[in-house]
Specification:
Elements: E1 4-10, E2 17-23, E3 26-30, E4 32-37, H1 47-52, E5 58-60, H2 62-67, H3 71-76, H4 80-83, E6 90-92, H5 96-102, E7 113-116, E8 123-126, H6 128-138, E9 142-144, H7 156-176, E10 183-188, H8 194-206, E11 211-214, H9 224-234, E12 243-246, H10 252-260, E13 265-268, H11 270-276, E14 279-280, E15 287-288, H12 308-312, H13 315-323, H14 327-353, H15 357-370
Parallel strand pairs: 4-5, 4-13, 5-6, 9-10, 10-11, 11-12, 12-13
Antiparallel strand pairs: 1-2, 2-3, 7-8, 14-15
Helix pairs in contact: 6-7, 7-8, 8-9, 10-14, 10-15, 11-14, 13-14
Bound molecules: zinc ion (ZN).
Residues 301-302, 305, 307, 309-310, 336, 339 line the site of zinc ion.
Length: 375
């Protein structure tokens, strides 16, 4: 079965969408934040812990699964769900993002992309067809088209050529997609350029994918307004009955803004990456548990958080674990940070249902930014 998006309600002021996505592995609510399981594992968390965080869907990286252990071993195990013992929905990316970060400009050809493995330097070649074949074998619920990921600084001229090639790659990938139980999403590119986003969106939608993603927005140092514009220029052309997925975005304020601009699904490594460096999200901004002021703070990270870490442990204890390089410290912070972002999407869903997303955004933003600065 292909994934089905159902629109339940639109926020009256912003048009933000409250809905559900149904897959072979269950139905989940949207907007939703998707934790990233890079190497077929969300770092340090078991599937049970992800469920306790109320994760609706997780992401696994095709590039990493392809290199290690290899898609054939995962297929022999019965696909990603069986291999990693996760019986909820899984999305795989195309591998493009990692490959483009490893490739030099001359290695990007019409056929595909040459690059060197980050593990052993071996020269490898990834094509749109190969990306889809790997994802078919991984047997995720949602596969992504292989797209070029040009830098945000790319000129209008380069970006136009790039999106035209991405459209040809999308058609090549779609032509070889053979897994009936797997949906395939198209990716809209075009950088910060309104005309190119429109062109990319219209032409990608013409190919009739099972859902659509807005790509090329999570660039380091890119002005926020460019990111918001890229979404603003893309979503109006996506049919209402299809999922809209914003790739690589997980900062709380960006999630709220993304939903306002019509996005249903987000993913980002940020909650687990922050955790490994001793940081926690709170409604008052990010805090670093390594800070000496938490040495004798025997309260949870957040009093009203329902996560396993906050229900059972204090800041002083987590600080002790983090400063002693104990793995449990990163684990507890990962659980809290993932739950924080998923709880944020729960609060957003409630605000949409009650047509008060704008006032929710103002309240959240005021507290998150203002008090956060004092930390
Ligand atoms: Zn918590």
């Amino acid at each position: 079965m292909k994934v089905q998006y159902q629109l339940l309600h639109k926020d009256k002021e912003t048009g933000a969408r409250r809905g559900t996505i149904t897959t072979n592995y269950g139905t989940f609510d949207t907007p939703m934040f998707m934790p990233v399981g890079t190497k077929a594992t969300v770092k340090m968390l078991t599937p049970e812990e992800l469920k306790d965080c109320a994760a609706g869907i997780i992401l696994a990286n095709t590039y990493h699964c392809w290199l290690r252990p290899g898609e054939d071993i995962i297929a022999k195990a019965g696909g990603l769900h069986k291999f990693m013992n996760y019986d909820g929905p899984i999305l795989t990316d195309s591998g493009g993002y990692q490959v483009f970060s490893l490739a030099k400009p001359k290695d990007i050809t019409e056929d595909g992309v040459y690059f060197k493995s980050h593990i052993d330097g071996q020269k490898l070649f990834l094509t749109p067809e190969k990306s889809i074949e790997i994802q078919n074998k991984l047997d995720s619920d949602i596969a992504m088209s292989f797209d070029e990921c040009p830098p945000a600084s790319a000129s209008h001229e380069y970006m136009q050529k790039s999106i035209e090639r991405t459209l040809r790659w999308a058609a090549r990938g779609k032509a070889v997609h053979k897994n009936e139980n797997q949906s395939l999403f198209g990716i809209i590119q075009g950088g910060p350029y309104e005309d190119l986003r429109k062109l990319s969106a219209i032409e990608t939608v013409k190919m009739d994918f099972d859902g659509y993603s807005v790509g090329g927005v999570a660039n380091d140092g890119e002005p926020k307004e460019d990111m918001y514009n890229a979404i603003r220029y893309s979503t109006p052309y996506i049919p209402e009955d299809k999922t809209r997925y914003l790739m690589g975005v997980g900062e709380p304020l960006d999630i709220i803004e993304g939903v306002i601009l019509g996005i249903d699904l987000f993913d980002c490594v940020i909650p687990t990456r922050l955790a490994r460096h001793g940081n926690a999200f709170t409604k008052d901004g990010k805090i670093n548990l390594k800070n000496a002021k938490y040495k004798e703070d025997f309260t949870p990270i957040e009093d009203d958080c329902d996560c396993y870490a906050c229900k059972n442990y204090t800041k002083a204890y987590i600080r002790h674990l983090v400063t002693s390089n104990e793995a449990l410290g990163g684990r507890l912070l990962s659980i809290h940070n993932i739950r924080f972002l998923i709880k944020l999407t729960e609060d957003i869903r409630k605000a949409i249902e009650e047509d008060r997303l704008l006032s929710f955004k103002e309240q959240f933003k005021t507290r998150y930014e203002k008090i956060g600065k004092n930390r």
